[in-house]
Amino acid sequence: MNIPNRITVSRIMLIPIFMIIMLVDFNWGTMNFLGAELPVTHFVGGLIFIFASLTDWVDGYYARKYNLVTTFGKFLDPLADKLLVSAALIILVELGFAASWIVIIIISREFAVTGLRLVLAGEGEVVAAGGLGKIKTTAQILAVTTLLLHNPIFTWIGFPFADVMLYVALIFTIWSGWEYFYANRTALMASK
């Protein structure tokens, strides 16, 4: 396994740690972070989420720079993103910070695109992340981060940036999902 794929696997391994920090009541108290009052566990969980999300950029950069792009990496990298974001969104629903209907749509799209990738992989085609998919992932990460950290900075001016970003992420999630299916409609219909 090459270094970019190891970085991707490490991102997946951070998910249970992130979940434990966010869901177990460690009673570490609260803190003020850039105007937002939040439990220390949310701050630590937010930092873990940010770090795990940054590994997505690192593994992709490293794979392209050193020509280490593999079929395994093309499959595992977007899957790792989906697992990380899905875990965070489900936690945000449990904590009451995200509407369940939005999270259901986002996760449903992720399952659908992963299913499409599996069908096409069975036909010998690998579907790498496209431009809209990357924007979608960035919007989701930004929305989740600001929700985990209780809308930092924007709390001072009373603007619900985190909630707005969640809707932006929802729009790009739907749009990029439609793009994947539309772009691969011929191959999907021809699959046996």
Q: In CATH's first tier, which class applies?
A: Mainly Alpha
Order of neighbouring strands in the sheet with most strands: 1-2
Report the uncertain regions.
none
Tally the helices. Answer: 8
* CATH fold type: Four Helix Bundle (Hemerythrin (Met), subunit A)
Assembly context of the chains: single chain
Major beta sheet, specifics? 2 strands, antiparallel
Transmembrane segments: 12-31, 43-62, 83-107, 153-175
GO cellular component, one term: plasma membrane
Enzyme class: transferase
Function: This protein catalyzes the committed step to the synthesis of the acidic phospholipids.
Keywords:
CDP-diacylglycerol-glycerol-3-phosphate 3-phosphatidyltransferase activity; single chain; 4% strand; mainly alpha; Four Helix Bundle (Hemerythrin (Met), subunit A); 192 residues; EC 2.7.8.5; CDP-OH_PTrfase_TM_dom
Can you give me a brief rundown of this structure?
One of its GO terms (biological process) is phosphatidylglycerol biosynthetic process. The chain is mainly alpha-helical.
Describe this structure in words.
- With 192 residues, the chain is mainly alpha-helical.
- The chain has one domain: Four Helix Bundle (Hemerythrin (Met), subunit A), CATH 1.20.120.
- It has eight helices and two strands.
- It has helices at residues 3-23, 40-65, 71-94, 100-122, 131-148, 154-157, 161-183, 185-190, and strands spanning 30-33, 36-39.
- A two-stranded antiparallel sheet has the order 1-2.
- A hairpin with a 2-residue loop joins strand 1 (30-33) and strand 2.
- The radius of gyration is 17 Å and the shape is globular.
- The model has no long low-confidence stretch (mean pLDDT 91).
